[in-house]
């Protein structure tokens, strides 16, 4: 039965209860991730009724164009957020790295779950078993859908060529295994692990070779900010350390490491070919004794984490902004502007 904007069900005893509808992409990985979140919610709230609503996004539909060329910032989230806005779902499960740092008005990230490995992984063509990126022959073609990965790896592994590869995880692995187009592909280690394909990982790239994407490895639950009951429910899924890491990352859009009561953020800006690079590190205390003031705004770069101290969230966000400002003062904007122009001209 339907009551207002919410879907409800009636059990055998005639009791009516609300169904919490969870929006997700249709891919196998997205469903695995959403089922994981649903299981966590069920463990916390055994009596809650959960329904899963799968849908396709722009990024799922356009498979013959590089992601950087499509020109849409919300490639894997827009349709899900539209459904959230129309009250067709009550929450949406995302890979946090897919969520823009500025969310549409009225939405917030109500939960950031404990992070899986944030690193990138090399998956070799079966014929190259036992090799690494260093030992692959000159001119070997590496597939990646990410400009971030290509720019960094071109600098580190100049003997390799990098070409775009599109499709979901299953599709990209099939393209690698069944054709001779690629010697290897680069994928997020977290996705491979969640799919149960950890044995396909030939090499994990450390941050010195390739800094991982903002939010990579973390799952996010997006909700309507006005739905205080849903927000309170999902907030129990927050993993405080992951929240602070991702607030700092989203504030700067680069890499983070957490040291006890101190955030250490390393960020970099690369040209498309990897030849120009600006890289630096800053630290900030996240203990109550620092000078980060309390914020009246409980949302930080789209994240609402009521169970994580506000002073820590403020410090994390300021750290990301300060590091970005430092690199901008060193010429990062010129590198980014040139990279955007070159990408647009491709």
Automatic annotation (TrEMBL):
Please tell me one Gene Ontology term that the record gives under cellular component.
cytoplasm
EC assignment: the record states 2.5.1.61
As cofactor, the record names: dipyrromethane
Q: Name one Pfam family in it.
A: Porphobil_deam
Q: Which InterPro entries match?
A: HemC, Porphobilin_deaminase_N, Porphobilinogen_deaminase_C_sf
Porphobilinogen deaminase N-terminal domain sequence ranges: 20-231
Entry's SUPFAM superfamilies?
Answer: Periplasmic binding protein-like II, Porphobilinogen deaminase (hydroxymethylbilane synthase), C-terminal domain
Q: Which UniProt keywords are given for this protein, alphabetically ordered?
A: Porphyrin biosynthesis, Transferase
Q: Does the keyword Transferase apply?
A: yes
Top EC group: transferase
Show the Gene3D superfamilies listed in the entry: Periplasmic binding protein-like II (3.40.190.10), Porphobilinogen deaminase, C-terminal domain (3.30.160.40)
GO-annotated biological processes: heme biosynthetic process
Q: Which domain of life is it from?
A: Eukaryota
Single GO MF descriptor: hydroxymethylbilane synthase activity
User: What's this protein's family per the entry?
Assistant: Belongs to the HMBS family.
Tell me the protein's name.
Answer: hydroxymethylbilane synthase
Q: Which organism is it from?
A: Esox lucius (Northern pike)
């Amino acid at each position: 039965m339907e009551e207002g904007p919410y879907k409800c069900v009636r059990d055998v005893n005639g009791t009516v209860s609300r169904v919490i509808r969870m929006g997700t992409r249709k891919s196998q990985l997205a469903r695995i991730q959403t089922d994981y979140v649903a299981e966590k919610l069920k463990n916390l709230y055994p009596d809650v009724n959960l329904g899963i609503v799968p849908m396709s996004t722009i990024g799922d539909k356009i498979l013959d164009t590089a992601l950087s060329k499509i020109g849409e910032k919300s490639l894997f989230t827009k349709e899900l957020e539209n459904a959230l806005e129309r009250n067709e779902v009550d929450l949406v499960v995302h890979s946090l790295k897919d969520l823009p740092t500025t969310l549409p008005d009225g939405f917030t990230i109500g939960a950031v779950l404990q992070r899986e490995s944030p690193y990138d992984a090399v998956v070799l063509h079966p014929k190259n078993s036992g090799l690494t990126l260093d030992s692959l022959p000159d001119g070997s073609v590496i597939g990646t859908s990410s400009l971030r990965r290509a720019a960094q790896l071109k600098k580190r592994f100049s003997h390799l060529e990098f070409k775009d590869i599109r499709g979901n995880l299953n599709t990209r692995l099939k393209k690698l295994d069944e054709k001779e187009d690629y010697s290897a592909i680069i994928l997020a280690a977290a996705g491979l692990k969640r799919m149960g394909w950890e044995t396909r990982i030939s090499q994990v790239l450390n941050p010195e070779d390739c800094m991982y994407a903002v939010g990579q490895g973390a799952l996010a639950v997006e909700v309507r900010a006005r739905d205080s009951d849903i927000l309170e429910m999902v907030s129990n899924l927050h993993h405080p350390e992951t929240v602070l890491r991702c607030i700092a990352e989203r504030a700067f859009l680069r890499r983070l490491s957490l040291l006890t009561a101190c955030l250490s953020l390393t960020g970099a800006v690369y040209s498309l070919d990897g030849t120009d690079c600006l890289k630096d590190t800053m630290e900030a205390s996240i203990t109550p004794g620092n000078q980060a003031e309390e914020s009246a705004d409980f949302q930080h770069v789209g994240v609402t984490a009521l169970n994580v101290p506000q002073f820590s969230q403020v410090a994390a966000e300021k750290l990301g902004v300060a590091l970005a400002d430092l690199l901008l003062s060193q010429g990062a904007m010129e590198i980014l502007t040139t990279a955007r122009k070159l990408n647009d001209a491709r």
